[in-house]
């Protein structure tokens, strides 16, 4: 069974998905005239924009909810595996994909806001909603919603729970069974409390979590400051076939750099569209700029922090695609969290493994919160009349069971199932946002025009020729300038 699953993973996560993600990022960057760069200052300002009726969440809370989904094991274990398979050059392409991904994140989050709706006394939206209303393809939307609900409710959560279990076993010697209980008990308290409780938790924990991790990286880099110039040169040379050791794996560096960036920041994959739709803003582009910024935090800051720690301390191995070791600084150590634990241990000694275990717990656990919210939102979409409210209770119970099972099952199986669920989502959403790109371009053009006039942008879909955006018709009538 595991061999069959790995075969499916190989097909889904082929270079086709890598180049599709790269092409979509380039296309939207050009089409939006680099929106993720033009409005960088505005992104930061909008983080703290207050516009809350009590039904939606604030921009900052939506940002933190999205960030809790973006920042996870991919930022620690995923970066290490990218270096192990693609060499230091993979870090360069990971950053490039992160920068391009800001445009993809803007487009998908714009669409989520445009076609959101009020349901169950909350704002709901995401890829199934904009596929149905924007593309007018309800059967496709239902299929996508079912795939997402299955992926984030059943297939993907085990990856995060399993990584927590492995790190706790290494650092504290805890059995997977005990770690599983540590994961699901507080998780149950949060998810049974609803989206507002998720948002309140995320906007307190996530910023502190990311800041503390980056500060730890800074300490390690300062301790290894003499290695920084050569490290940066190695990254650039390896990315462009100018290094004698890693020159032969440039293609692999590009592939793994893009792959890990997509897995980590999920820009364009649809994951952040659900939290984006929950935000209360006066114009869709506002929250979309905030989501673009979350991609920077995830990849350009957090992923890069991990990469720099590993490379500056030399705690990594790199293998050629045929299995030959190009660099073996850590004999018999598998790529993953062990690289990061060893890097931090060079400065903090025995505290290294414990710190990484705690960081993984916070990163992965908040990621699980985001996964549950996504699964619940798609379930509400599938049961849009709320005729079967007990379905949400069933989902909560199944989700908690999966998290516990993921804690005690084999790592390989959990990652394989997660890759299948996440990869399938990527293909579906990339296709949808490319087809709906013109809608997002209209929204951006309207935002640009209002900003040039010095206005606080308020969105009216009728003025830009967008239909089926019923929520915004009522909103604009109440907030006419």
UniProtKB/TrEMBL annotation:
Family the UniProt entry places it in: Belongs to the alanine or glycine:cation symporter (AGCS) (TC 2.A.25) family.
Protein origin, superkingdom: Bacteria
Protein keywords: Cell inner membrane, Cell membrane, Membrane, Symport, Transmembrane, Transmembrane helix, Transport
Membrane-spanning intervals of the chain: 16-39, 60-85, 91-115, 140-159, 171-193, 205-236, 293-318, 355-374, 394-416, 422-444
MF annotations from Gene Ontology: amino acid:sodium symporter activity
Entry-linked InterPro entries: Na/Ala_symport (IPR001463)
Subcellular locations according to the entry: Cell inner membrane; Cell membrane
Topology with respect to the bilayer: Multi-pass membrane protein
Species annotation: Moraxella cuniculi
Name of protein: Na+/alanine symporter
GO CC terms: plasma membrane
């Amino acid at each position: 069974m595991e061999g069959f699953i790995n075969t499916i993973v190989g097909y889904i996560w082929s270079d086709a998905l890598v180049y599709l993600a790269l092409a979509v990022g380039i296309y939207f960057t050009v089409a939006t005239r680099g929106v993720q760069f033009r409005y960088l200052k505005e992104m930061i300002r909008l983080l703290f924009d207050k516009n809350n009726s009590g039904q939606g969440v604030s921009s900052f809370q939506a940002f933190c909810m999205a960030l809790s989904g973006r920042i996870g094991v991919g930022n620690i274990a995923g970066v290490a595996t990218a270096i192990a398979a693609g060499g230091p050059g993979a870090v360069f392409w990971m950053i490039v994909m992160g920068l391009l991904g800001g445009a993809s994140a803007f487009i998908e989050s714009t669409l989520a806001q445009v076609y959101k709706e009020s349901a169950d006394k909350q704002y709901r939206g995401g890829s199934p909603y904009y596929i149905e209303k924007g593309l007018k393809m309800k059967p496709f939307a239902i299929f996508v919603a079912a795939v997402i609900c299955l992926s984030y409710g059943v297939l993907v959560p085990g990856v995060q729970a399993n990584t927590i279990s492995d790190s706790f076993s290494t650092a504290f010697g805890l059995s997977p069974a005990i770690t599983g209980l540590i994961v699901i008990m507080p998780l149950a308290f949060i998810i049974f409390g609803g989206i507002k409780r998720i948002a309140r938790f995320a906007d307190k924990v996530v910023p502190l979590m990311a800041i503390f991790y980056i500060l730890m990286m800074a300490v390690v880099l300062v301790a290894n400051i003499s290695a920084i110039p050569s490290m940066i040169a190695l990254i650039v040379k390896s990315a462009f076939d100018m290094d004698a050791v890693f020159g032969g794996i440039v293609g692999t560096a590009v592939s793994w750099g893009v792959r890990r960036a997509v897995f980590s920041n999920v820009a364009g994959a649809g994951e952040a569209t659900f939290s984006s739709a929950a935000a209360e803003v006066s114009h869709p582009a506002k929250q979309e700029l905030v989501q673009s910024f979350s991609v920077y935090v995830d990849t350009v800051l957090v992923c890069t922090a991990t990469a720099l720690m590993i490379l500056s301390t030399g705690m990594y191995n790199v293998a050629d695609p045929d299995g030959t070791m190009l660099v073996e600084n850590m004999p018999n150590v598998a790529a993953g969290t062990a690289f990061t634990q060893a890097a931090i241990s060079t400065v903090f000694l025995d505290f290294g493994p414990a710190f990484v275990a705690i960081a993984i717990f916070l990163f992965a656990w908040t990621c699980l919160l985001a996964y549950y919210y996504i699964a619940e939102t798609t379930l509400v979409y599938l049961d849009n009349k709320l005729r079967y409210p007990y379905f949400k209770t069933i989902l909560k119970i199944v989700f908690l069971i999966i998290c516990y099972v993921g804690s005690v099952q084999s790592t390989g199986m959990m990652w394989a199932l997660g890759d299948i669920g996440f990869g399938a989502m990527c293909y579906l959403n990339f296709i949808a946002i490319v087809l709906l790109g013109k809608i997002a371009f209209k929204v951006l053009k309207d935002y640009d025009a209002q900003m040039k006039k010095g206005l606080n942008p308020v969105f009216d879909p009728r003025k830009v020729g967008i239909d089926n955006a019923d929520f915004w018709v009522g909103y604009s009538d109440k907030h006419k300038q």
